[in-house]
Each structure stands twice: as structure tokens, then as C-alpha cells.
Amino acid sequence: MTEETPGFEEQPDVPSEAAQTPDDVAKGAGSADKAGPGAPAGDLEQVAIQAQLDQVRTALNERTADLQRLQAEYQNYRRRVERDRVQVKEVAVANLLSELLPVLDDIGRAREHGELVGGFKSVAESLETVAAKLGLQQFGKEGEPFDPLVHEALMHSYAPDVTETTCVQILQPGYRIGERTIRPARVAVAEPQPGASPKGPGEGDGTAPDEESGGPEEG
């Protein structure tokens, strides 16, 4: 019979930590993360990343709105500058041509009296051409209705052959540049005769309207 050594019992084989491979350690750690508090930490990280993305999107939208506003302000500024530039140019041209109006009046009077001849005629016509290129337009004609916005009445009379206040003589022509009047036309006007009424049928042509016969009937 085999003798048993007293005080010793047979133990099952248990692998020691030294006997575990690195792969076994990694697998164990991964299992611990999945099963333990690692899952909530991952969710918190995702929430934090989403919050950062939302902040970036908000900041991007704000910067985009700022850029659009600046672009609109710049376009408005350019339009104002262009409008002011055009207005300054128009005012400068109008001031220059206003100083030339007396010369143009002298040229007009010389033409009416037949004195616009020779070299003076060529210079005068060249000056008128340049003024026209700058946009100067002459207005005011006999027979047109009087308009206080563009006419200045210097003489007044009554005439039987007009039905409204009419310019019957142009004493000094008016000038404009585009829609801007730089000098009104100075005119003599005529109004209808006081108390005169428009001519009716048969008046003034030797005919008379038919008269209806009347009177008491003979009995």
C-alpha cells in the first residue's frame, strides 16, 4: 500500500499571473471596460463632441451673417459714393454752364441781327456745340402754355385769341441740364380778355342760330 504524506492535500492547477500572456491581459482589460463604467464615459464624450460641434456651427453662422452684413454695407457705400460723384459732376457742369449763359445770349442776339459772320460765327458755333455735348438744352417757344416752373413772366397783357395764359414772346430763352433747370425762360405772357367767353356755334362767321317762331295764336 502507498503511504500518504500527512498534512498535504492535492490542489488544482491555477495559472499564475506570470504565466498569463499580454493578449490575455488586454482582453481582460477590454472586457472590464465594456462591462464597467467605460460605457457612460463614452456617451459623455460623444455629448461633449456634439456640443463643441454645435458651438462651432453657431460661431460659423454668426461670422457668415457678419460677412453678409458687411458686404451689404459695402455695396450701399459704393452706391452712395457713385451717386455723390454723379451729383458733384452735375453741379460742377451746371455752375460752369451758368457762367457761359450771358455769352450764349450775346451769340443769340448777334444771330438775330445778322451779325454772326466770319470767324466769330465759327467760334460761336463751336461754343454752342461744346455746351450741347455737356448736356445744355435750350427751351422756350412762342405759343406754348405758360408754366411757372420753367417760365418767368416779365410782361403781361390780354389777348382775344388765347384761351389760357400763353407765352407770346420769348425775351430770353431758358436752359436746362437733364431735368435740372439752370435758368427759366423769361417771357411775355397774354391772358384771355376778362369776361370773354369761348365762341359758340355761328359766332363770328356771319351766321346766326335758328330762331323758333312764337307768339300768340290768332283766334
Automatic annotation (TrEMBL):
Family: Belongs to the GrpE family.
InterPro entries: GrpE, GrpE_CC, GrpE_head
Subunit organization: Homodimer.
The protein's role, per its UniProt record: Participates actively in the response to hyperosmotic and heat shock by preventing the aggregation of stress-denatured proteins, in association with DnaK and GrpE. It is the nucleotide exchange factor for DnaK and may function as a thermosensor. Unfolded proteins bind initially to DnaJ; upon interaction with the DnaJ-bound protein, DnaK hydrolyzes its bound ATP, resulting in the formation of a stable complex. GrpE releases ADP from DnaK; ATP binding to DnaK triggers the release of the substrate protein, thus completing the reaction cycle.
GO molecular function list: adenyl-nucleotide exchange factor activity; protein homodimerization activity; protein-folding chaperone binding; unfolded protein binding
Bias-annotated ranges (Acidic residues): 1-12, 208-219
Gene3D superfamilies: 3.90.20.20, Head domain of nucleotide exchange factor GrpE
Protein name in the entry: Protein GrpE
One BP annotation, GO: protein folding
